[in-house]
Amino acid sequence: MTDPSATFLLFGATGDLARRMIFPSLYNLLSDGLLPADFLIIGSARSEMSDEAFRAEIDAALKQFLPADRYDADIAASFGAMIQYQSVEAGNADQFAALAERIDGRLERGLSVYLSTPPSLFAPTAQGLADAGLIVPTTRIAMEKPIGKDLASSRVVNDGIGHLFGEDQIFRVDHYLGKETVQNLLALRFGNVMFEPLWNASAIDHVQITVGETVGLEGRVSYYDGVGALRDMVQNHMLQILSIIAMEPPARMDPTSVRDEKVKALRSLRPMTDETVKTHSVRGQYTPGAVSGQIVTGYADELGQPSDTETFVALKAYIDNWRWQGVPFYLRTGKRMPQRQSEIVIQFKPVRHSIFGRDGHGSGLEPNTLVIRLQPEEYIRLQIMSKRPGLEQQVKLDEVTLDVSLTAAFAGQRRRIAYERLILDLLAGNATLFVRRDEVEAQWAWIDSIINGWKEANMKPAAYSSGNWGPSSAIALIERDGASWHD
């Protein structure tokens, strides 16, 4: 499967993700000359609409969500000419047949199907495609998260799709893997001689992964309540980042080699119990407070009723293998945080013996820290010790920062939407940045151990005021080990 797909079929084409991300990404790919010749985009949803009305909606979305300097009327007109719309509802054979007529004669040049729908519609939609004769060896299918709500349900979703598609045709989307800085983790580790020899328990004290959001429910009430931060963020985005940090060096940069090593790391996560969740996890739920100077309501107020769903989670995880034995991985994510922030902190151990600070004087020697910021800025910063300028007999050290701003280093390059990379790889059949079934199941196996531990221990979310970094117990989680969160 090497030839790029000539047809892109999007289910859920009138949804928010399609308007904000998918269609602007396709537009940018066209603008950069990266789409195949004679490319066709078919949008599909339940509502009835003409091609012209749908094109007008997409044009309005491009004007709204693209940067002003990216929108070009001529390119937008060419883009609109590629777009068609077909109303399709799962289980409606006639509508799927009408869809097949639009694609007639194009299947052998490749069809990429993108499911931006609830997971409950994945299998029925795939079955409708099969019944309409649209699943052939050149058909690929991409699925947005969530892939189930636990290990058992994820297997049901995967079985439903896997019954009709081969694993090499299935592309499970985690948009974090499309971010340049996440991909840069691979380049940082395996493209630089100074990091990989130190990337293990002998040199690293601990690892922190933080994903903070300032928003609350933001219209996601029906989805989020009952799901919570653990399932919504940790199970996918954060564990994918963890797997890239923790994986062994792959033999080569191809989908099988990379994902083989990621799944090994995920399977090495130490399961939690009803005892360890008390000391290795924190659940929280935001209450009224202030974020960025704005007064905001609490989760229960937004929801309209009390709830035990967590909007914040902090975890202390261990990876039981040779490379990482004894190194804690601290994971933290939540809503209504003080700032929007996604970053990775690699905290190195202190030097074994300091030659500075004799005669009772302190050395001021700090362990090296590597900070990889994913958003909103993108940078890599290494904090090292340097001599303070001066003529003093006693050498005095200060911490200085080696700063690689990816925005500044590649100032001539446009910052791309993560979905551009993922859609381009889907069209080309490159699955390296997509999640394999065994990865999903390894992630859910660990998450299930936490959820079951919470239930057994009857662990309820602790309250935290909006605008704070979670409950005070999240600070204790890391500080009892002599470390602190990098805020």
Task: Give the amount of beta strand, in percent.
Answer: 15-25%
Binned, the helix content reads 25-40%
Biggest sheet details: 9 strands, mixed
CATH fold annotation of the largest domain: Dihydrodipicolinate Reductase, domain 2
> In the residues, how many domains can be counted?
2
Q: Could you name the ranges where pLDDT drops below 50 across 5 or more consecutive residues?
A: none
- Estimated radius of gyration: 24 Å
Got a strand count?
A: 17
Mean pLDDT: 92
CATH superfamily of the largest domain: Dihydrodipicolinate Reductase, domain 2
Mind telling me which CATH architecture of the largest domain this is?
2-Layer Sandwich
Characterization of this structure:
The structure is a single chain. By secondary structure, this protein is α/β, with parallel strands linked by helices. It folds into 2 domains: 7-144, NAD(P)-binding Rossmann-like Domain (Rossmann fold); 177-479, Dihydrodipicolinate Reductase, domain 2, CATH 3.30.360. Helix content is 36%, strand content 21%. It contains 16 helices and 17 strands. The protein has helices spanning 16-31, 51-65, 73-81, 93-103, 122-131, 151-162, 180-190, 221-224, 228-246, 255-267, 276-280, 299-303, 406-409, 418-428, 437-457, 472-479; strands spanning 7-11, 40-45, 83-87, 111-115, 139-143, 170-172, 204-212, 281-287, 289-291, 294-296, 312-318, 328-334, 341-348, 369-375, 379-387, 397-405, 462-465. The chain has a 9-stranded mixed sheet with strand order 16-15-14-13-7-12-11-8-17, sandwiched between helices. The longest helix has 21 residues, at 437-457. The radius of gyration is 24 Å and the shape is globular. It starts with 6 loop residues before the first strand and ends in an 8-residue tail after the last helix.
